[in-house]
Q: What sequence folds into this?
């Protein structure tokens, strides 16, 4: 006897799920590291990013004083991929740096994406990260460890 309102039944649903094609795995968007268009950098290593974003270095690899910026939309993924840290651990690190009198300044979150791009485009020492598709033409996208964001081996995803 068929139960009213019940279609396939448990066995039918299990069979349909087993035979259905797998759902595609959504690839994570690459996270672009961007600088002022006139900045001489074209590439940066993950180790250099680590030193900058942890405050152990306050100078960009070509000698410019750094101003660290962050995008709230991808910061958790960036800190995990670039630093191997959760956002909570990253914040605790900076609390320690500030209270110990370290010379670094924690990254600043700048409004929305348009504001972030504009700020980087108008401040030579600024470095920031944002979704690769959001980089736009007003900032320079750096290669990381010699790889561009569109390379499947790119490390920041």
A:
């Amino acid at each position: 006897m068929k139960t009213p309102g019940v279609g396939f039944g448990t066995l039918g649903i299990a069979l349909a799920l087993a035979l259905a094609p797998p759902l595609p795995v959504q690839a994570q968007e690459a996270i672009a590291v961007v600088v002022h268009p006139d900045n001489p950098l074209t590439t940066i290593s993950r180790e250099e990013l680590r030193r900058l974003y942890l405050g152990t270095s306050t100078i960009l690899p070509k000698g410019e004083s750094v101003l660290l910026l962050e995008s709230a939309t991808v910061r958790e993924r960036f800190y995990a991929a670039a630093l191997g840290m959760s956002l909570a651990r990253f914040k605790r690190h900076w609390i320690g740096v500030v209270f110990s009198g370290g010379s670094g300044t924690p990254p600043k979150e700048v409004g929305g994406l348009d504001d972030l791009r504009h700020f980087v485009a108008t401040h030579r020492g600024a470095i920031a990260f944002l979704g690769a598709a959001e980089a736009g033409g007003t900032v320079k996208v750096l290669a990381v460890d010699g790889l561009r964001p569109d390379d499947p081996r790119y490390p920041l995803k």
Remarks:
- The two ends are 53 Å apart (CA to CA).
- The chain is about 30% helix and 15% strand.
- Strands lie at 31-35, 43-44, 67-70, 108-109, 126-131, 140-144.
- Residues 12-17, 22-26 have pLDDT under 50 and may be disordered.
